[in-house]
Amino acid sequence: MKLVSIHKHFVVLLLFVIGFHTSNAQVWTLQRCIDTATVRNKNMQMSRNTIAIAEEKEKEAKANLIPKITGNADYRYYFNLPYQLMPLSAFGGPAGEYKAIQFGVPNSINANLQLSMPLYNPHVYGAIQTTKIASELTQLQYQKTEEQVYFEISNLYYNAQILHHQLAFIDSNLINTERVLKNIQLLKEQLLVKGTDVSKVKLQISQLATQKETISSKYHQVLNALKLAMGISIEQNLQIEAKIQYQNTKEYTPSSTLDSRIVKTQYRLLSNELSTLNKSRFWPSLNLIGMYGTTGFGYNGLPDSFLDFYPIGYGGIQLSYPLFNGTVTQRKISQKKHEIQNSELQSGLITEQNNMQVENAQIQRVVAKKSLETTAEQIELAKVIYEQTILQQKTGTASLTDVLLSDNALREAQQTYLSSVIDYLKADLELKKLTGNISTTKLYQQ
Length: 446
Prior knowledge:
Layout: H1 11-17, E1 27-28, H2 30-40, H3 42-63, E2 68-77, E3 83-87, E4 98-102, E5 107-120, H4 122-189, H5 195-230, E6 239-240, H6 258-282, E7 285-299, E8 306-320, H7 328-395, H8 400-434
Parallel strand pairs: 1-6
Antiparallel strand pairs: 2-5, 3-4, 5-7, 7-8
Helix pairs in contact: 2-4, 3-4, 4-5, 4-6, 4-8, 6-7, 7-8
């Protein structure tokens, strides 16, 4: 009896072009997943909060230049008045002799407003510059987090796509293998094949079913991980785009990467902190000060109680110069110099690592591209072998085992091609990152 052909010439291309999705499920493209993660990913949200915190710290540092006004009030009751030594010569007594006398009243009230504004303070201006650079650093770190999220989303999406296509291949192979089983069973009834031939086909169906169950489980796990990375509910329905799109890309011109820019900004931050320490060590601070208030004196005994208030106020300039602080500043300066040396070493290390990784990524992309070309040829060759085996089986010159082997070879070639496509996309994405050509606005070109 004539066997039904399992694979048509257009099966592979059809699986790449047609999306396997239900009519009631909206397809999520990779770009839509990335856009959703940009808004809802928890790491992205924390990075945006970090940027807001850095901006507030910069405003806080600038606020130190604004005049500060402090209100003070206190009440004191002296149950033992303070003593003063009065020279007896002031009262006509002998010179060089003094008398301890208590002055004042037991009740004292003070209320005043104090003004302080820095005219020049190396700590304040250094802090302003430091927080400004730190704000730039948080912006770069946000971009780094954004880049990491994009990579995570892209890799998960690519993995989901290949698993999706593997499921589609298995479903197609299951249908066609079941048809072969029916034909073999008819041939067995006519005593044209052995019972072991039927068992072989049944075994292949069982293996395909087990493989489908395993891949289906992995597919749902990858989708759950993708939902988590996007920041959406695990229960939400997510249908990815089945069509895998790629194109041969041109070579990328190397530019500054985020890692390199982050290290350079950290170096600027450390250098500014060192400069601030040096200035605070040798430069004075100049502040405008002022105070206005009132002082009250009260007495509640005999022969007459009273509570009188007297105004007090002053204004002036305060100069402060550091003379010696126990070498604390010197120790801090030494620490910063070592940190700057480490930053310089780290910058060189990142450059060397990046050059090595760029070369490796270029090799990986070349290998993946060659693998694409090779596996495409292997699919065509596997098709020819399979069709010839089918014809030979019809004429009795090929056994069922030959048919099953050629069928397995074709399916393996199809799945290897899918893997090669994903490997090429990942290698290209990695190369974009390492050369500083990745676009944070749109990583996935439709």
